[in-house]
Amino acid sequence: MARSTKEEYEQRCEEAADLLAEGFPGRVVVNRLAEKFAVTPQQARTYVREGERLAKEAVPVHDRAFLFAQTFAGLQADRIDARDAGNINRSEEHTSEL
Prior knowledge:
Layout: H1 6-21, H2 26-37, H3 41-58, H4 61-84, H5 88-97
C-alpha cells in the first residue's frame, strides 16, 4: 500500500473533521475512512485524531459552549416530544445518545 500524499492526508483529515462535526462517533468515522480509502483502522484513527484537532481549532472556545447548550436543548426537546407522543422507544433512543 502506497503512502498518501500530503494533499490526500489533509483531505482525509478534513473529511474526518466534517464527519465528527456532523455528530458521527469516532469509531464510525474510523470504519468509514478505513473502508473508503482502503487503509488500516490504525491509519484511519490518525485521520480522526487530526480531524478532532482541526474541528476544535475551527470553533472558538466561547462558541463551543453555546453550540453544546443548543444541541443539548434540541435533544431534550426531541425527547419530550417523543414522550408526549407516546413514542417511548424513540424517547429512549434520544436519551441514550446523551
